Amino acid sequence: MLKESQLALTPSPFKVVGDERIIRRFLMQYLDLMSFSPEAEQEWLHSGGFQQDLLEVTSEHSITLRTGAIQRLKMVIYISNLRISMGYFAAFPIAFLNVYKDSKFFLAAKDLMHYIAKEKIPSRETQLQEILFFAVYLMSEERPTNRAKHLRYLRRRRIGEKEHPFSVCLERLSDIAGFNLTDDDIFLFHIYQTFKRIHLGNEFNTETLQSSMLQHLPYYETNPLFQTLEKLVAETFSKIPLVFSKLNVLEIFTLFQAAILRRKNKHVIQAALVCRTYYEKDYIREVLKYHFGHKLAISTLDSSSVDLISEYEEFDLVISTELNQSSKLIGHLPAINVSAFPTGSELMEIRQFIHDHFFEQIGLDKEMIYPFEK
Known about the structure:
Shape: elongated
Largest sheet: 4 strands, parallel
Radius of gyration: 28 Å
């Protein structure tokens, strides 16, 4: 964590040294990793009132918070009070203060200033800096009030600017995924918020990323897809410039994985089920529905019409109890033979086909996507 935060630890006595904003960020990430909750501290009396006031103030200033923001902002207040009590104060360039002092985030933070130990802040200038410190975190926790409207904005403006790094990055990510990721509303909404937050983190040395992800980093930073994404974002945003830590890349990695799996969960195989009798057809169809749900769109055919399948273009797979009578299928459509009472190995073969068929369609190495097969 110290390495990721670019801080140093003195040998004796043990002390974290560096920029105060980065030290506070490090403390927040460390306590988050240790599953610490400010409410557990008896001396911290502001938890209940702060949450209520935060919700009221953000509502007054038309600020909508993203998932988990309240707990993270509690931690920001807790750490600020802790550091101020020790005589350490946050400091930003005066230009930042001049730019943001009239923003809704600064005004909202100012309304919550009574939760910070103001009697221990030596000057008005220092107090303004502490207000800005909280305002920056508040800004990074904002999410758009109207998601549909925000998505329209992204598609018309941001993605419409073909040379913009965000647009270029999405295009390159889509090339890797094998389908257009901008069609995925969930991915598009979250990836933009991620890049926005990383930009703010770079500019202000603040970050509210869940550090519980850190313990998983050694398992995934050697994944070829992780390394591809790490190189891609570094190159795409080099002109801004935007610096991505490995934890930032891991977050993008999880969003990308989720988009692939979301696509995979919607993937449907058009299957022809060919049986000898009506009771086989009825039973096997329900067994397949039980095991594979919506992943198989099943059309049932009589064995006498099995040769017609070769003339259709709508099927991806033939499941049959009598493949020995369907020689015309060989070399035309994938076919799996099942018994009247499908066995576990037969069902596994169908499951494997569904899995492989999806990755063949998008052209992505299935070993890079969860559940990782190597």
